[in-house]
């Protein structure tokens, strides 16, 4: 298991020939976080389809991923997995926090959160932590402006469709990118994501150690 500040470190180790073992990426820089995407997809499918949803894809499920896309390895892994499972993914954030080259991703990218909610009628809204520790420059004028434009405020949460669930990979900046009203609601999957993360990562380790046998 490797978690590393440098993007691409797990791939370098896996291809190096230095070790004769499988390498599981537990998060590399701002690149990817595959096991987080697995637990998020599992949580989303279970919340939408229940236990009967086992093995089902996410065809047509509409997901908004909102916030600091630029620095989020969670967003990158979720984009590829959710799109592979058939979900329609829309990325929402300020222009300064959307990566270059996003045109090649299987997503729609927009800047207006309220318009995105109205246009997509989302089944799930996944809020991302603003990673200020990775920001050497000012990517937005103020926390107040960010929260007003891209935060899941109480008013914005109450305006969501009743069926829309709220996701967050944690840790959360309460009152900044997400209001406690949204984070603690019955429509929030935050605690489920934490619990499902244990099971999902146990499964990844089991399949790796068992040589892929289910």
UniProtKB/TrEMBL annotation:
Q: Which domain of life is it from?
A: Bacteria
Q: Which residues form the Aspartate/ornithine carbamoyltransferase carbamoyl-P binding domain?
A: 1-45
Question: What keywords tag this UniProt record?
Answer: Transferase
The record ties this protein, via Gene3D superfamilies, to: Aspartate/ornithine carbamoyltransferase
- InterPro entries in the record: Asp/Orn_carbamoyltranf_P-bd, Asp/Orn_carbamoylTrfase, Asp/Orn_carbamoylTrfase_sf, Asp_carbamoyltransf_Asp/Orn-bd
What are the residue boundaries of the Aspartate/ornithine carbamoyltransferase Asp/Orn-binding domain, all occurrences included?
Answer: 59-207
Which family is annotated? Belongs to the aspartate/ornithine carbamoyltransferase superfamily.
Query: What is the protein name given in its UniProt record?
Result: Aspartate carbamoyltransferase
The upper taxonomy is: Bacteria, Bacillati, Actinomycetota, Actinomycetes, Micrococcales
